[in-house]
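Exam review. A common question shows you a sequence with its structure tokens and asks you to describe the fold in words. Practice with the pair below. Do the first one on your own.
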Amino acid sequence: MQHTSEPIRTNTRGRRALRLRRYRYVGFSRRVWQRRAVFLLGAIFVGLAAVGFAKLSDKAQALYYAILNQWHWLPLVMTPLGFVALAYVTARWFPAAAGSGIPQVIAARASSNPAHRQSLLGWQTMIAKIVMTALALVVGASVGREGPTVQVGASVMFAVASFAGIGRHNGLVLAGSAAGIAAAFNAPIAGILFAIEELAKSFAGRINDIVIASVAIAGGVSWLILGNYAYFGEVSAQMIRAADWSAVPICAAIGGVMGGLFSRSLITITRRPPSFIAALRKEPAVFAGICGLIVAILSIATAGYASGNGYGETRAGLLLGEQLPFWYGPSKLIATMLSSASGIPGGLFSPSLAVGSGLGSMLTPVVTFVDPRALMLLMTVGYFAAVVQAPLTAVVIVMEMTSDRNMVVPLMATALLAAGISRLISRQPLYHALSHAYAPKPQHKEASPSRAS
């Protein structure tokens, strides 16, 4: 037995020594340090881009409200024409800048063709995304900048990696997307979870460090410029009595159904539209103009509530417990649906949170025994989790945006139930379903290097 075990111990020591030499080699490898420098520089740029995008979007939205207050009926002309112009420019020159940007990132990560990835994440698309999302807010669309910031973050990392000559982009693209979420919401943990739960749909251990580091750096840049703030302010909602917990299944059911219907409807309109909508979509500018006209009517009828990202209204409801108009949630849902389906650039994150808070506010006169802020928080997370079918991300985003740790368990229960109900209505997650539109075209399906993770 001694003669048999000695070679085994010798081989084990030899393998350990070999692994140690490899780790030492990798630690001092010029290529490894080049990749580290690339993601460090890229993460800083993502943070700067996210902050600049946020400031531009805020000014754009303020400009629309100033126009609406000064010329009340002007949106009836400005909004449809703006939708037409944005949809035409997007379809004609920047097709990868349409919509949220998250489906494009998913498609880019699934693609093994460099030219196809470049078309989805190139610098031209990134600039067009920023400019045209801001213009969409100027003309009164119900869009947000948080989803587009995901594509901007991925594009920044892709550009920096391409400039440095690094061919393995997948990990850096994922890290850039996570950093974009972290910087947009000042929610670093949500950025990491979003990368795992929504974009990757799995956890790859070898990209763990780069994702976390990119999130920390981009979030740090945002923190240095904007300060350490909670996106919606510090909310202090509580559920103390046992009866308060009855709000969890109520909000999960309503949020799950409404979010699932929104997701399924948007997928249907964009991918499998009924014949009359399909006929309209053959003329993208005409379809966008009709969507813009309806959004304009809703905006005028609601004194601007239906337009924009809904940040102010959501903050007033969650932070101050103010009751929103009963029509706010439904009108915001319709305006967001039409803005997203029209083909113009713009995201769903903030408008979806606004819809959720509006639906929660509708319940406050009925469910009077629950703190209105708690009710709106539960409905916000339930509806958002149902739309994106990413419950953990929804919980952490809402928790970090409100700095509220008292509601963690109710929020988790509501998000999981709502996402489950949504899956019964819409089998495929929204962003993954929409990503099929950005799959490689025939000219991109040529032989290409194998995909790297």
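Now try the second one, then compare your answer with the model answer below.
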Amino acid sequence: MIVCKFGGTSVQDAEAVRRVAGIIKARLKDKPVVVASAMGKTTNGLLQAAETAARGKRQEALDLLGKIRERHYRETQKLLAGSAQEAVLEALGTHFKELATLLKGLAILGELTPRSMDAVASFGERFSTLILTEVLRAGGIAAELMDARQCIITDDNFTRAAPLFDLTDAAVREHLLPSIKAGRVPVLQGFIGSTRNGITTTIGRGGSDYSASLVGAALDAYDIQIWTDVDGIMTTDPRMVPEARRVKVISFDEAAELAYFGARVLHPATIVPAVRKKIPVHVLNSYKPEQEGTLITDEARPCENPVKAIAYKKGITIVNITSTRMLMAYGFLRKIFETFELHKTSVDVVSTSEVSVSLTLDDISKLWDVVTELRKISEVNVDGGKAIVCCVGDNLRNIPGLAHLVFTAVQDVNVHMISQGASAINISFVIDEDRLPHAVRSLHDVFFQKLDPNIFE
């Protein structure tokens, strides 16, 4: 049994959906379970409509919804004919009526809560899987549309809900195994789940990868395939460095670091369920299904190149916290991180001295609440417009001279923070965002002039 997840660009229009149907048909012998994202940009459009409605612009919100409806109707009409088309259009119509009612309610209330955001955002995946299931049936595949909200059970942290693993494992097996045993192909939505009380949740933007990994782990799949619009994990972002090369094989730990530090191929949490069961993950290109992509495995393979890939994360803010009163005192760090915990704000990179702490944030939605609290115990200043650069490779911490190579490559770039040694497989540093392209290109030139053919292509 395998799990095949298809991202938004892989189901963005009729042509893409037909390509996906061909990929699934070619893998029927492997007993695929299909997880799909919303059509590209649909979720953004739905949330824009919801935000517009909450500002009291009822008709404008309905007009935005109308454009999304027209797109889904148009692609359905290209894909299906006769009674199959009629059935899908009718089901879509029911969904859009429900959405319109939600938007009207938001316009009256004038407020968009996280719970309401999840209710609205969930429709994108429900649209796409409805269409995809019927296209598979029309192609002779015994597909069955499932409701991910019955399978992915989460807490109630709306918009960033955390899956409850034991409950999810049991629910996935309960709802999907009978379909699989009957020879059908289950099709379910990525990104969405529900609380134990059945309230719709989402597991964070890009969470369809995570959904696929949760399903694969629960079913003990032997392969999880993440189908996207790139050739796999690359040595860096090819939009920034056109000479970037494909990484053929990489370890779970390395892939997780890359995902967390900005490599957009995978959702950062994707790897966790797969690691639990040691299930290999393939990152593949739905536009070039014949290519082998990138294999993510439990153990790192020997590599002549010390660095496997370079990732980056933009939009970073540094928070500098200083208190001379805390010199030689204990409990200072605890007070700092309790403040971040209180405001549910995660930290990326940390650097400390006797009297000061510098740390980075990529989510600043609660920044000023955090700063206000921290100023009760210290001086605080905030410095935005930064980026994190992260070099990832197996056992980097124990390679003599690696830091020299890294910082020689960026010797003309001001480095604000450095993190090395906390992880054996990465070295990270923070720079001004406007210097990011130069830094990444310089690092790529240093580490990928000569490539290990067993690891790179």
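Model answer, second protein: The CA atoms of residues 219 and 343 lie 36 Å apart. The two ends are 28 Å apart (CA to CA). Full marks require stating both points clearly.
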